[in-house]
Predict the structure of Winged helix DNA-binding domain-containing protein.
Amino acid sequence: MLRIGIEQRRRRLGRRHRLATSCQAADPVQAAASLVVLHATDPATVHLSVAARVPGSDVTHTERALYEDRALIRMLGMRRTVFVVPTSLAPVVQAACSDDIALKQRKLLVKHLVEAGIAPDADSAGQWLRSVEESTATALTLRGSATAQELAQDEPRLRSRLAMATGKSYATQPYVTSRVLFQLAAEGRIVRGRPLGTWLSSQHQWSPAEKWLPEGLRGDLTADEARTKLARAWLESFGPGTLADLQWWTGWTLGQTRKALVAIEAVEVDLDGATGYVLPGDEAPEVEVEPWVAFLPALDPTPMGWKDRDWYLGEHKSRLFDTTGNIGPTIWADGRIVGAWGQPESGEVRYQLLEDVGRDTLAAIEDHAARWTTWLAGVRITPRFRTPLERLLSQG
């Protein structure tokens, strides 16, 4: 079995993830495709991930790709997470991941409707939900685009309340609005459009999928075909990776993951004792790139691409991740994490290194910090999921 060592894996990151200066992307769409998708749970991540890989890019470039060219689309995908996806890949993500998520979430919502007393049993709750969904979809079609609040005005049943964690100190009674819209989005019937407010807003206008994209989000792929295509895309960007890496990233079952790897005839390689996989013909050593440095945002797709992260993370996990596995802003040098960055109230980019990087790399890091301070122009980014080192750097 061919061995691919840590240095080779790190070298691949510089080229394939568009982080080395000579390998950067031409535009936001190419940047996203190089990573398969961009994380979009935190709205800032999308723009910062692009800016780290596209020289001269700013917020308006990414917004144009999302909302005018519509070459990128924000949608629910792997692990029930929101991503920004190249439009050409959207039907693949829908069939490979979103459809299964929609089935599971429908069952869960029906259960919650019964528990809230909105319907007496699962059959009645299912009928109620379908009726509200169709009414909401019709209202959205008539409006063309709408906010959740506007749709709730058109369909008053969206203001029905659920009963979550009844009897607990953290019990809540949220409106069913977000759950119904989530369900319609998971099924590919509606899509998120422009944000309400600035580029940091997580609230969006909604549109019918066919109005936003003439061909919609649903293609003619079977689930197996779509999983094969998605596994191929992941290995092209993130390979070599293990079975566990791919299963974690996609959220698939073990059986689904194995079947996809067999379908693409993935080649087994030795990752210092662990069995990894690459695409056929991708076993050759990566061409060396020049030394590089990158400042990546919280939840950037690069550090969130694998389950096993020791080969680029080292011993820094406790300071860079929160307790549920979300990474904060990081500093990279030649394929490994060497520090973190954050912003105090004044807005400048501060950083802290976690290891000795040498004089030349330190100079490059200082230059990047100054460039990011200029790029952000006083806008302070507070990650949705705070991590220990980011909190420390953001004080004062």
